[in-house]
Amino acid sequence: MIPRKRNTDGSLMDANDLAAQAWSSAWAQMVDAGMKAVRSSEVLSGQRQAEVEIAETPADVVFQIDKVRMLKYHPLAKKKSNAPPVLICYGLFGRQTMIDLQEDRSLVRNLLADGIEVYVVDWGTPTRADQYLNMDDYIDLYLGSCVEKLVELNNDKPITLFGICEGGTFATALAAMRPELFAGLALAITPIDFKGEPDEFWQGEGFLNSWIQNLSKDDVDLIIDTYGMLPGELTGAIFSSLTPMASMTKYNIGLANMDGNEAAILNFLRMEKWIADRPDHPGEAARQWLNDFYRENQLVEGKLEVAGETVDLRNISCPVLNIYALQDHIIPVSCSKALSKFVKPALYQEIGFPGGHVGVFVSRKAQGVVAGGLSEWIQKTQKPASKKPAGKKPAGKKSVTKK
Amino acid sequence: MANSDNAFQQMFDMWQQGQEAYLKAQKEAADEFSRNFADAGSANAFSMGPDAMSNWQGFVNSWAPAWNPSAMMANGSADQLFAQGKEALHGMLDPANWMNHAPEQLRNILNSIAQGPQFADLATPQIDAAEAWRESLDYQKAAMDFAKIMQDAWGRAFKRYSEEFTLEDLQSGEVKEALDAWLKAANEELLATQRSPEFMDAQRRLMRAGVEIKARQRETAEAWCENWQMPTRTEVDDVAKIVHELRREVRKLKREVAALKVAREA
Question: Which residues 6+ apart lie within 8 Å of B195 measured at CB?
């Protein structure tokens, strides 16, 4: 409760004076808030969709399989690092453009500035023609082929794979299936144990896990069979509902609070542009993601099969950096940290970032903590391999899949 | 041909017998009707004389023998009957009752139509319509249930805000603090609600009901496509599946050929 105002002599203020002062104060604050909203609105009305640009760091396609492309970013540093190239793999629920949202908040640019060779997987835009693509295709065929190609481009030497969110789960599974391809595995906001520790969840944490686990297999099948794909609009609406008040106030109070600050409004619009561009998730892969991963937790149960092979996380043999967000409302901390149970302690490192799911990439703080931490980990732990892994076939020549 | 003539004759006989039975039944009812009016003992059967009530009861009984007004009156006073009637009338006029009870009854009726025995060429459109209607009611019900849970959550949030942020706080004129307190109370209450089993159950039912309607729309669209000789979604999906499987097969064969080449070169 706010303490009741007093006169200068310490006595309680007269009720009429109090009311007049309160009204005057309230009116002044409302006018101030209104002016802020007007100023933001003015800046907003001057912006055009086409002028809000994201992911501007130039890159070239170096490999393509079906709709999936692997791109190489143009180097930014004069001196090239000796570290192995890094391949970044985002999930299918959003676009990889998140890692390069704007020039001063770009994970890609930070790595490039340190002389690291950076590649990215672009899953393309799946349509209903792609609805039968499943985890065998995405993990083993598509991601596996991209990694193989990069190993080949790296003179048959292993590379670093940086997986994000669902892409991190793909990367983890592939690192367990094909350890010889990897010099390092970095992950960000990645679910491993899909149940996590519900007793440890903070108030806004783990809704996605609870909600999906509340569905039956039949519910999931009904959605996929009906839509063919998991629609981007549906997943977008679910993500918004995880933070109800933040979603309800961002276009009014949130915008007004920006007080016409052009830089802040442009950051906001770039983020909105990324959120609005949410592709449909291929149906069969979504069915497995919801049933096998979320509902049945097959990855940590040791029951997940990809391309006819059971994924055993204990096979991961390269250094691992696991970055999670302490206020992540989508992937609970305990779901990410569970990887530590499967990787040898000498190989495993963590960074707990004090921010949210997307903040790991776009917040100002993240540029130092996450991008800086990742770059440092790559340089320290991954000495360039002078020759091919002993006793192993050249990685690039090994068959990608058993299909 | 003789057999055919016989068949027509049989059908004609059956029709004639049916007509006669119907007319006979009508005649009996008409006779009973006449007798009751004659018993009224007056040229004007509708005059309300001393026997008017018994005449009326006799008339009604001739059409509905099971009706027993004495037993009905014995169940309670006229006031009680009136109260029951008033309640029923209110029930009919109260939209809340339509949503809570009528759709459930209607739903059961629609379900019994939809789930009833299916004949090869008969009543299929009616069965489809009944199912579509039932699904629509399911969706309305699920949406209402979900909305009620959210409405209750907002109610709790407001109650909590009223308790935590007092009138004196409001009198301070600190609008921003009032707004922040409201947003905090609402956020915490909504998050708590979203974790409750009631919310999750309602969310699941709403999702299912929505998807079932979408599936019905797809079925309707497919029927339209078929009528206009256009490829249906199912047919296009089938082609996509065949292409997907062929692509896998081609990749597998390519790998086998490559492996054979390597083996031969070695």
Answer: A207, A210
Closest alpha carbon within chain B to A3: B169
Q: What is the DSSP string of A284-320?
A: HHHHHIIIIIIIT-HHHHT--EETTEE--GGG--S-E
Length of chain A: 403
Report the percent of chain A where pLDDT is more than 70: 93
For the stretch A242-288, pLDDT in tens is 999 999 999 999 999 999 999 999 999 999 999 999 999 999 999 99
Model confidence pTM above 0.90: no
Give the gap in angstroms from C-alpha A41 to the nearest C-alpha of chain B: 20
Nearest CA to CA, how far is B112 from chain A (Å)? 23
**Is the per-residue pLDDT at B43 higher than 50?**
no
Contact A2 B241 (CB under 8 A): no
Cβ distance of B194 and A207 shorter than 8 Å: yes
pLDDT of residue A398: 43
| pLDDT value of position B164 | 84
Tokens of A293: 């991963």
Residues in A touching B170 (Cβ below 8 Å): 22
B110 and B137 Cβ atoms separated by less than 8 Å: yes
Q: Is there a contact between A214 and B186 if contact means CB atoms under 8 Å apart?
A: no
Contacts of B137 (CB under 8 A, 6+ apart): B103, B106, B107, B110
- Is A165 catalytic? The answer is yes
List the single residue in B with minimal CA-CA distance to A132. B241
Q: State yes or no: pLDDT of B33 exceeds 60.
A: no
B208:A219 CB<8 A: yes
Best CA proximity match to A321, nearest among A308, A306, A339 = A339
Q: What single-letter amino acid sits at A15?
A: A
DSSP B107-122: HHHHHHHHHS---SSS
- Is residue A109 over pLDDT 90? yes
| Phi, psi for residue A92 in degrees, rounded to 5 | -95, -5
Nearest to B183 by CA among B147, B214, B158: B158
CA distance A111 to A305: 34
Strands A182-188 and A305-306: unpaired
* pLDDT for position B96: 53
| Whole-angstrom distance, CA of residue B27 vs CA of residue B14 | 20
Q: Is any Cβ of chain A less than 8 angstroms from the Cβ of B44?
A: no
Taking a C-beta distance cutoff of 8 angstroms, is the pair A170, A96 a contact?
Answer: no
Give B-chain residues touching A222 at CB under 8 angstroms: 208, 211-212, 215
Does B244 lie at the interface with A, CB-CB under 8 angstroms? yes
Q: Which of B179, B201, B252 is opposite residue A403, by nearest beta carbon? A: B252
